[in-house]
Amino acid sequence: MSKICRFIHAEKANYAVTPLCKVMRTARSTYCAWVAGRQARAARRRADEALAHEITVIHLASRRNYGVPRVTAELRRQGRLVNRKRVERVMREHGIAGHSRRTGRRGLTKADTRAAPSPDLIGRDFTATRPGTKIVGDITYIPTAEGWLCLAAWLDLATREVIGYSMADHHRAELVVDALDMAAALGRLEPGCVIHSDRGSEYASGQLRMKIGELECRQSMGRTGNCFDNAAAESFWAVLKEEIGTRFWPDRATARTDIFDFVETFCNRRRLRKHIHWGYLTPHETRLRYQQDQALAA
């Protein structure tokens, strides 16, 4: 209908409006309403362009990862009251879209059949009432021109913050122990903390068991070959590999730098995640919120 009204508006200098409306089979009142709303439509277009600029800035700051929900949340955090459907429309019109997760994963887990597995203390309950009480860990591989770079990480289930990580050209037991040492050195583990993983040989090793005992924590393991028993850690790898922005690195040193930057400056401190009670917060903000609530309760 707007195309017809624009045509009538363009031709009214040559012909009367009434016969033009008859020829185009459009009511004159429809054309008059269209003319009356031109200023309002122009104002909406200008507002949408301004919103598109703000969305673009947020999208670029998120490494082009944020979709509609997190863009909307970031706008509201900045004091911009905006409807989610409007954000969705503007992003669609300007070709702005977040990353979608890739599917398929080649596993590194090799179970140690000689080691007795620890019990599953998580039971697929990937929630925690406070930081430092339940963490999950896993190993993934990063492809580089020099060969694989193995990355081990420990994730706090209360905040979804990466509290410890380690990188090497191997995935022996010391890789996961080094990552756990980092978490302990930062003071992110409480006594009795449940440390959950799969049944890979690195996690069933005596070296890791000894370290967990020294920290006065409890070890937990999922079932062999069942990724759902460690779904929170698997989900983090999917996020990292999709949102880090690189698929293949020229060397291990570059990959290390990019992973450090992603974890420390983006994932822990800037990446928004929806909390069931507090809405969209970064992992760092979530930890601070828990600490504030504990201080008030005390």
UniProtKB/TrEMBL annotation:
InterPro entries listed in its UniProt record: HTH-like_dom, Integrase_cat-core, RNaseH-like_sf, RNaseH_sf, Transpos_IS3, Transposase_IS3/IS150/IS904
Source species of the chain: Streptomyces atratus
Name the record gives this protein: Transposase InsO and inactivated derivatives
Domain called Integrase catalytic: residue spans: 127-291
Gene Ontology MF terms: nucleic acid binding
GO biological process: DNA integration
Function: Involved in the transposition of the insertion sequence.
